[in-house]
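Lecture notes, unit on protein representations.

Consider one protein chain, 68 amino acids long.
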Amino acid sequence: MPGKHVSRVRALYRRILQLHRALPPDLKALGDQYVKDEFRRHKTVGPGEAQRFLKEWEAISRNLNLIF
């Protein structure tokens, strides 16, 4: 199970950074740094908080995908 969680997190992280490529350079840099900081900050949270975090970022990813 932990391996599946790690791959899910990594795939989501990569997907968000890929979506940022469509942004202007200044916004891309700001967005990339924000995502990196958020994922780093939530690296050691408990299972419940980790699930909420992933759910929210997956929704953000879906919304970004609709925009780009």
